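Quarterly update from the structural biology core.
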Amino acid sequence: MDAFPYNRIKPNVVCQNDKNTHYQTSINMKTKIILLGLLIGIGILYSCSEEFDNSINKYSISGVAQKGPYVKGSQIEISELTESLTQTGRNFNLELKNDLGEFDVADIELKSTKIEITADGFYFNEVLGSLSQSRLMLKSLSDISVKRSVNVNIMTHLIIDRLKTLIKKGENYDTAKILAQNELLAIFQIRTDTVRDFENLNLSSQDSENGILIALSCIIQGRNTVAELSKLLADFKEDFGDNGKIDNANIQSELINNAKLLDTSSVRINMEKYYNTLGLSIKIPAFEKHITTFIDSFDFETTLDISYPIKGDFGDNLLAKESNTEINKAQTYSFSAIFPSEIELLIKLKMNKIDGNVTWATEETKQTNWFGVPTNGNEIKGMAVGKNADMPITFTGTGIIEVQVETFKMGVVDEYLETKKIVLTIK
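Predicted structure, tokenized:
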């Protein structure tokens, strides 16, 4: 047996070459980590440079802020945006310099050419013909690399969320803006080739495309308070921002209700008077046709129409009957109508004998919100707000009658809305 079992125990020996190899490996690893860190840093810097050019440039920006026109002292904030339309933190504040809503600022320093302009203040309400009772906020997005005049209005405000959605989906700014504008115009049945850029629209300009701005501004405003208007704007932007359409039935009804309630002649007079007080003789462009087209083109459900229930307080409602219906003279019937609460409507009703010896009668003491006695050819009126009109009607003899119902919106001059005719055979 050997004195030392060399074949069983291996000595723990590290040669000099192994030490050198270990040291070199450690250095290489540290070098790789440093290089990786540098590459990551360069990548971050590069991605930031893609958002906007880090060089600072000076810009002069002007425009008008309008719902109707914002008044002197209203606040304007200009915020710098990245290419993805997020705020960079660079903001500039100023006040409107007159009651036309005009503003301008010189030599503001920006790294990016994408900006958001926010108007916040009181404005002239063109529907009511008076200043708003509260402050309203409207916004506009713009690329000042191609323009230095940027207006803020209802239309620039409504497309903001949709514009951001399209950019998130991969569209570039210019394409997204055109798509969003066209989608908004389509909701109101306005040809998409009639407006190039919402930021150019101006209520005080007589160019025909500005009639579109007046029409949409009036429809959105309606008879809303500022609080109600702010809610409608927020709800509209949210619904429209998703798919470029208005799917919410409540918004649809409010828009069509507002349009039907508008007194367009008063709007025109209100705007002319306002600008006259500022020393301007403004020719208001045609806007009425756009409101009429919107009303006629959409089947949005309205809550402004008079409704006729199947039965009234005294029996079957003759105003709900189809034309050429047979009526039993032995029964008592109703003339019943339900008036909306949002608008003052008027019914003018006439009964005319066409054939036979039929006559009819009512009990005046039982009439509710009807005024007059419905004799042959005599016109009676039904008027109520948020209430029912009803009265009993009975027949003697047989024959054919025509019931004519004309509906009007009440005002200084009653505005005709529609005519309904019902032919009834009395047996």
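Residues 14-51 form one domain.
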